[in-house]
Amino acid sequence: MNLTELNRVAEAMVTPGRGILAADESSSTIKKRFDTIGVESTPDTRRDYRELLFRSSEAMSKHISGVILYDETIRQNAKDGTPLVKLIEQAGSLPGIKVDKGTKPLPFCPSEVITEGLDGLRERLVEYRALGAKFAKWRAVIDIGAGIPSYTCIRANAHALARYAALCQDEGIVPIVEPEVLMDGDHDAERCYSVTEWVLKTVYEDLYYQRVALEGTVLKPNMVVPGKKSQKRASVDQVAEMTARVLRACVPAAVPGIAFLSGGQSDEDATAHLDAINRIGGLPWRVTFSYGRALQAAPQKAWSGRSENVAAAQRAFSHRARMNGLATLGQWKADLERKAA
Ligand code: 13P
Questions:
Q1: Protein residue whose Cα sits closest to atom 9 of ligand 1
Q2: Which residue of 139, 281, 296, 305 is 20 to 30 Å from 45, comparing CA positions?
Q3: Active site residues
Q4: Is-contact 318 59, C-beta < 8 A?
Q5: Atom 8 of ligand 1: nearest residue by CA position
């Protein structure tokens, strides 16, 4: 393992002012997104859409440090024949790849899931590395509800994340470690805090037992927010304070950076929360974004599958990327959103 090189890539992924574009929707997830804008999901429409994002030179060169791709996309060429990976590299951004194979029901644990994809992972990493991937992503999913999560679910998912991370580092790829506590339930922020704490403590224990070098990793956690169906809302400052507190309690300072998922928050909430966390200051890691929906909802809507809308979609993407870039520095202001609207 070349830890110097892994650390260099991890640091580049969390460069201040920049963050990660999660464009790794599986074919079934991107179909759901396209359904909402009335676009048929085909290899060509998926290529056209992602090409427009990667050719948004303003966003890509100034605010996007890396892009997480899906297996289909890392192999695709732009309309003019240039590999999409090359477009990302030419913009000065790093290509990455989602390597988990999604979730399956966890035996004897009703309503809980385990992320699969360890079998054959080393061989896939070797291939992805040859295709240009510098980092990878694996997402574990933890749901909160009556009697869940279970010890079984947290242990099994943390173990899989750690096995994945060790394989990545052994093949010279930086693992993004993503244990996502979902915000789907009716729980309050305090419950999200305690589950997130349990999950993160377990994940770092398993990373240690699998001999993962934290200096060559990036953590992609959820923020501490109330469930979508909770009556008890939390202010931006409360979310920021609780999120920073749980991360300080659980994430070793050797980790170069934390890149949040957006998890179904609105675009503006995701930006405001990231900004408020960075305003707290004095955190031992870089704190940035690795957003899917919160970066792509606006450009998807602006594009709606029409080539005449490409420039408008690129403007929408650049705007969100710039807002989140400012939030990594604690310099975002709600006024900037209104001026752009
Ligand atoms: P969201 O920001 O839409 O939650 O997606 C991030 C991601 O990569 C989830 O795995």
A1: 261
A2: 139
A3: 178, 220
A4: yes
A5: 22
The predicted-structure confidence for 68-123, as pLDDT tens digits, reads as follows: 999 999 999 999 999 999 999 999 999 999 999 999 999 999 999 999 999 999 99
Structure tokens at 40: 């048929």
- 188-202 residue pLDDT tens: 999 999 999 999 999
Enter the DSSP assignment of 145. B
Tell me if residue 218 falls in helix, strand or coil: strand
| 167 C-alpha to ligand 1 centroid (Å) | 22
Residue 263 is classified by DSSP as T
Tell me, in angstroms, the distance from the centre of ligand 1 to residue 261's CA. Answer: 5
At position 147, the amino acid (one-letter code) is G
Q: What Cα–Cα distance (Å) separates residue 173 from each residue in 187, 191, 227, 318?
A: 36, 34, 34, 28
pLDDT of residue 338: 82
Rounded CA separation 234/189 (Å)? 7
Q: Please indicate whether residue 222, judged by its CB atom, sits closer than 6 Å to ligand 1.
A: no
Total number of residues shown for the chain: 341
For residue 25 the two structure tokens come to 């929707």
Tell me if 139 CB under 6 Å of ligand 1.
Answer: yes
Burial of 305 (0-12, 13-18, 19+ CB in 10 A): middle
Distance (Å) of CA 331 to CA 78, 276, 336? 35, 9, 10
Cβ(64) – ligand 1 distance below 6 Å? no
